[in-house]
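Morning!

As promised:
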Amino acid sequence: MNHFSLALRHLHREWRAGELLVLAMALIIAVASVTSVNFFTSRIHQALAGQANDLLGGDLVYLSDSAIKAQRVARAAELGLQSAKTLEFPTMVLAGEKNQLVALKAVSDSYPLRGQNRVAPKLFAADAAVTGGPEPGTVWGGSRLLTILGVDVGDELTVGNIDLKVAAVLTSEPDQSEGVLLNIAPRLLMHTDDLPATGLVQPASRIVYRLLLAGDAEAIGQIRQEWEPKLKPGESLLDVQDARPEVRSALKRGEHFLALAALVSVLLAGAAVAMATRRFISRHLDNCAIMRCLGAEQAMISRLYLIQMVVLGLLASVVGIAVGYLAQWGLMFFLAPLAGIDLPAPSLWPVALGLITGMVTLLGFAVPPILQLKDVSTMRVLRRDLGGLKANALSAYGIGILAFMVLVLFQAQNLTLAAAIVAGLLLVLLMLALVAGGLLLLLRPLRKKGGAAWRFGVVNISRRSGHSLVQMVGFGVGLMALLLLAVVRGDLLSEWENRLPADAPNRFLINIQPDQLEGVRDFLRAEGVEPPLLYPMVRARLEQINGKPVVPSELKTDRAKRLVAREFNLSWAEEVQSGNAVVSGSWWQPGDYGKPIISVEQSLAKELGLGLGDTLTYNVAGQLFTAKISSLRRIDWESFKANFFVVAPPGLLDKYPVNYITGFYLPAEQHAVLNRMVQQFPNIMVLDVATILNQVRDIIEQVIMAVEYVFIFTVLAGLMVMYATIHATLDERIREAAVLRTLGARRSQLMSSIMLEYTGLGLLSGLVGAIAAGAIGMVIAKQIFDLVYLPGPALWLSGMLIGAIGVGVAGTLGTRFVLNQPPLKTLRGA
Amino acid sequence: MTAQIVVNTQNLHKRVMSPEGELTLLQGVNLSIAAGETVAIVGASGSGKSTLLGLLAGLDEPTEGQVSIGGQDLFALDEDGRARLRGEKVGFVFQAFQLLPNLTALENVMLPLELAGRHDARQVAEGVLQRVELAERASHYPKQLSGGEQQRVAIARAFAPHPQVLFADEPTGNLDHRTGERIIDLLFQLNAEQGTTLVLVTHDLHLAARCQRQLELDEGQLQAERS
């Protein structure tokens, strides 16, 4: 008989006895949580890789914020390349009394060069792929747009100065979407030939021009070589590698976040495994001693346990992978609509990762202590007090933490990030342990008070302080995960919503041309709306700081890179705008008008390392101007008013192309005013803040739901920790209860003492968990929502309440049967 | 005595460190036990009985001296070598039965045979269980058995591999008088059937009297033999 079959038989016997259930469950949870996230992200990656060419609409795309020069098209034709042009910008469209902001894309005849549009003949009818785009005189609208405007195929839409017929419902475009967030605006596709008549293309309009190229790879390579070195700010070249970088980076961040949530489950599962292993070991000390008496060599015992553990790990991992595969459909449900792409089947990598996760967790947290079992003293069979194992925490849990670090590294693919994640998690655990330890110390003086049950309960908590500490950390982590989901999330969302003052501007008007200023004021006055302040806006690109060219890639923070990569809106003003305050330097006097000085918002200045006296050189429509920073301002962004990072005195920017922006509060019942305004001034865009906020809110809700979904595993893992923790002390409790009952303790007394102990533990763990959840909430608030969140007593109280009730009930129920055992039986078996 | 010597000790000492200084548990124990003999080691609590038994079975190491089983010097072997030797030649019956709680009665009896890699473990174990009249309880777990039944399973487990020597540590200590008597009868019957050498540790003089020889330990030293 070989060791393998013997080990399998032992495994079967252990499983039958329920010894391995906690271990297996914890592993399944860990594996399921990691694989579900990775199955999902693998599908997204496959989609991005498979559709990359189609996603661009061509092999190479030249992007510019100014009109495409004829030479470029000619050069492409010379090299035998096909080309197509698109222009994309946001604008308002009208249908009868209704209007809507859309992401308009005008396309030339040959669009798209790669991939196909899909359209439906009627709203909600089945769609099919078609070649080419809309004919001149027609538009294709997305179903959302048509629904909002209450029109269908065959009706007309007003785009700028002209009416265009809806010829089809657009269901997908190959090069759709600038990214998740810009997808907020519904889509509208038209032909470039109709564009001049709309009058929408104005000198200061924010338009993205694209030249799509396709053809021979060599010719594409040559164009790339010729154009790439000469790209100016505002121009770029994209090929398949760069397809939808914004989606990629958004997904990357999303993946990291989901992966992190999954890893928290793995760590918790590791803790549950470690906890369950403690019980496993204490129950197997005798078994091992007996087996050694019966002739088992140390190596044999190690091999038996190792085979059992590996087989258990494999089986649990396979189940976990299956659960993870099912669970990823849930993630799809929440997140796939945001990604806006069809998802192919996942790769096999998550299966491998699931196996690795399961095995590493088990080998890291369970196997090192289990392998110490072989060292048990055989004398234990004669004298039970002999031959216990010396707990070697470092070898037992050090390897576990190291193993966990390997998993994090696998997932994060980045040593610094992995180290940061592990350090962060360990910090949370350390904090939990410190708080728990502190609370246990505070408990000591209470030992002498109260009745017998109270004393037993309290004494038990502080006497078993090592165990209590571990239990509190275990319960605390579980409760922390629960509280984060239940309380902190709600607090954060309402905090975010409350930040918007009730009378904050709810409508913004954008793209008002200088010659329309008086007209807009008169119009509003005639409609009985007090005309708001109109702010001038000049689009400029930051080229130099103190005479040195700005290279985005050399900037340190992502925010700084983003800030300089796009165009700035510069404004001018005589007075400091309300909600702004000069924090250093001084505001200009009338005598300074026209001088090359500017006022910069302080956070921008900090991000770019700017101070008073530094000079900035801007490029406005091809012309450079340089100005010196004469003051720094603090802006109350929460006012939700139109604000500007950089403001100049009057007279400096007047000569450049300018348009105006304003924001004001318009009660819902006066909504028709805006319809009339858009009819009279078709180029003006109306932003409905409430709608945008709702859409942003929807997206945030969806992302939060996806994260919560992953956190379900975390909560399950937390519950496993709690369960394993209760179980870890069960044997000791059974013996103790037996002794106490022999000494005359009544059932009710023991019951009260157990209830008191667990309720007390729950109360303390709830407080510990609430403090940790609050701290994590503060970090999330700052990092993700840019909010200041101060966890209050309500969080602590709910933590203590949930903890006391949850742990009290669970612990009492889990331990109750201790009292049902006849004491003699327990004592004899001991 | 011409029979072959199965258990032999020479000048066996065991000392341990305690908070009060060095403590002598055994002092110069010399004994020889022949094949098929039944020997009782008696003495008061703390006289060193369990310590001696532990050393005889190679469960613990002496500070000084030698133990041999079947001619093999135990402490010339390493721990694993002693385990192998136990598996081949030694059986145990304990006061606290020491059955594995997660294994059924049959599986407990099979365990030493399985550890020795025997393919006929199940048949042999079933036969021995039948011999101790517990065949119908083969699939019961230890906690479902009475104390006497558990000890019978333990005896079956001890005899299943046909050991050369059987060490029994207070085998009736956890049992009432009548059950204890029946257990002892069974132990001696099986011992006679298999021709095993039996070394019994007990403070029960009545039980000790059923053995061919009685060795008395007092404060770690072997007293004059009564027989």
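The two ends of chain A are 33 Å apart (CA to CA).

Hope this helps with the figure draft.
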